[in-house]
Amino acid sequence: IIQTRIDSPVRNEKIQAQRVARAFIISFAYGLDRVFWYHLRAFEKNPADWESYYGIVHKDFSPKPAFHAYETLARMLPEGSTRPELRTDGCKYHATWETPAKRRITALWSMIPGEEYAVKPGKTEVYDYLGRKVEAKTLELGAGVYYLVEKMTSRVMVADTDKGQELKEQIEDLKELVAAYREGTIKERIE
């Protein structure tokens, strides 16, 4: 069990957003299958009560940066991805996984700001923890996760994904339904 809240009375939305991906990636890498963020909505009732600012959306349900960080994480580490493999090198963290669409994703961050990482030109697309595309030859790592997405070497067709398999099954079901109508097994009802 892990707490996924800001651990200090500082209501810093940037720090909260930077922690979202790290908390989930580390939890998944260590074998957790489900992680629940404490709270979805910040009640923001009392400025002296820092716990009422934990949510990833404001009390009016407008998104905080943490919401966008979570949204980016969900896009980069969708259901069906392999479990992240986490390595550390001092204060530098490196997690890698493969998505259901066979894309290799690497998440990088450092607890000591300023560590550098050289991006392989032409082989990866880079996104920050809020999902913004980053154009850089060298990344200056910090508390926010950078996602390195390997460019596809070949096109992946929808039919080759889990969703594609679902669609094929639905098409077969529809074909059977049409055949049943044509054979008269199912009668058309007109009201």
Descriptive tags:
single chain, alpha+beta, six-stranded antiparallel β-sheet, two-stranded antiparallel ribbon, extended
Description:
The protein has 191 residues and is α+β, with helices and mostly antiparallel strands. The chain is 27% helix and 20% strand. The chain has 3 helices and 8 strands. The strands form 2 sheets. The protein has a 6-stranded antiparallel sheet, with helices on one face. A hairpin with a 2-residue loop joins strand 1 and strand 2 (92-98). Helix 1 (13-29) packs parallel to helix 2 (65-76). The radius of gyration is 22 Å and the shape is extended. The model has no long low-confidence stretch (mean pLDDT 87).
Weakly predicted, low-confidence segments:
none
- Helix count, per DSSP? 3
* Strand order of the biggest β-sheet: 1-2-3-8-5-6
Q: Could you say which overall geometry the principal axes of the C-alpha atoms support? A: extended
Main structural class = alpha+beta
Major sheet summary line: 6 strands, antiparallel
Amount of beta strand: 15-25%
How widely separated are the two ends?
Answer: 56 Å
Kindly report the average pLDDT value.
87
The ordered H/E elements are: HHEEEEEEEEH
Please estimate the helix content: 25-40%
User: What is the C-alpha radius of gyration, as a whole number of Å?
Assistant: 22 Å
Query: Total strand count, please?
Result: 8
